């Protein structure tokens, strides 16, 4: 039987997805991306799950799109198969927080996959690059758009045009990642963050994720208006009243995720 391209596990309210093509450094072929999309949508629909964690191996989060598969594709091949849109748009549909735990290489599509996540926790070994230029290709899974928004034009142009590789520390300094931890601590640290987040009220998490994403996708005044509507909507949430009353009562809130 063919080896599964991803592995999934559930830890409490955290749905975990491990990319699993170690011999190819988790190169992202259609089969892996389809499985990833299915797993993401399943966890997103599962009311017992509050956050999703995506990780790879110690050596590679993912080394990019599968070059061996792409090498002989024609324009019509990629157009007809909806290359990128078919698989990658799924990631944007996920409403729950998605956390990437990155060790080793996050290159090309692997870096773009991490960028599509909401939080990136990097091991000290993590290395980030968009080296498509070396192949006379282009970072086509959101890289040319998300990277400048994440780290600014100067650093993004450098990475895209020169294939510059960033260490975890540089990525941290430039705002590409959320936190850096020693390699040995990555699995536990990432699960701890995911578990903490998954314990909060799910509708509040989804509202915050949507509002923060607006910061990239709209003008400031539209974003502020959207944020205000989301704030007002919080007052229709049982969890929000529970959270505030629990604070006043000096007790832990019990969220129903409503
Ligand atoms: C297919 C890949 C691969 C990839 C590595 N492998 N990256 N196969 N697609 N993206 C395979 C190698 O061919 C090799 O197979 C095995 O994985 C181990 O890789 P090595 O190169 O031997 O490992 P190492 O010397 O440690 O170098 C690691 C590396 C290097 C620096 C990450 O593999 C590398 O540069 N890979 C390509 C990175 C890249 O260009 N990514 C962008 C792809 S384009 P064998 O059979 O020899 O053992 C892209 C487009 C995005 O992502 C837009 C669309 C999604």
UniProtKB/TrEMBL annotation:
<keyword id="KW-0456">Lyase</keyword>
<dbReference type="InterPro" id="IPR001753">
    <property type="entry name" value="Enoyl-CoA_hydra/iso"/>
</dbReference>
<dbReference type="InterPro" id="IPR014748">
    <property type="entry name" value="Enoyl-CoA_hydra_C"/>
</dbReference>
<dbReference type="GO" id="GO:0004300">
    <property type="term" value="F:enoyl-CoA hydratase activity"/>
</dbReference>
<dbReference type="Pfam" id="PF00378">
    <property type="entry name" value="ECH_1"/>
</dbReference>
<dbReference type="InterPro" id="IPR018376">
    <property type="entry name" value="Enoyl-CoA_hyd/isom_CS"/>
</dbReference>
<dbReference type="InterPro" id="IPR029045">
    <property type="entry name" value="ClpP/crotonase-like_dom_sf"/>
</dbReference>
<protein>
    <submittedName>
        <fullName>Enoyl-CoA hydratase</fullName>
        <ecNumber>4.2.1.17</ecNumber>
    </submittedName>
</protein>
<comment type="similarity">
    <text>Belongs to the enoyl-CoA hydratase/isomerase family.</text>
</comment>
């Amino acid at each position: 039987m063919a080896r599964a391209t991803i592995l999934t596990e559930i830890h409490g309210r955290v749905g975990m997805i491990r990319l699993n093509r170690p011999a190819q450094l988790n190169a992202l072929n259609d089969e892996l991306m389809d499985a990833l999309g299915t797993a993401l949508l399943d966890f997103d629909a599962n009311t017992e799950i509050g956050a999703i964690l995506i990780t790879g191996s110690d050596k590679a989060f993912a080394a990019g799109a599968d070059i061996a598969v792409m090498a002989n594709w024609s324009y019509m091949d990629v157009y007809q198969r909806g290359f990128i849109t078919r698989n990658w748009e799924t990631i944007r549909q996920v409403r729950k927080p998605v956390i990437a735990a990155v060790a080793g290489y996050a290159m090309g599509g692997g870096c773009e996959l991490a960028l599509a996540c909401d939080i990136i926790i990097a091991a000290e070994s993590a290395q980030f690059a968009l080296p498509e230029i070396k192949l006379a290709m282009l970072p086509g899974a959101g890289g040319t758009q998300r990277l400048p928004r994440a780290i600014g034009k100067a650093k993004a142009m450098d990475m895209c045009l020169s294939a510059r590789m960033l260490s975890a520390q540089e990525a941290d300094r430039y705002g590409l990642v959320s936190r850096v931890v020693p390699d040995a601590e990555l699995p536990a640290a990432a699960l701890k963050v995911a578990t903490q987040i998954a314990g909060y009220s799910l509708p509040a998490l989804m509202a915050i994720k949507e509002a923060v994403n607006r910061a990239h996708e709209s003008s400031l005044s539209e974003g502020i208006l959207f944020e205000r509507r989301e704030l007002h909507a919080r007052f229709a949430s049982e969890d929000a009243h529970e959270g505030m009353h629990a604070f006043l009562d000096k007790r832990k809130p019990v969220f129903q995720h409503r």
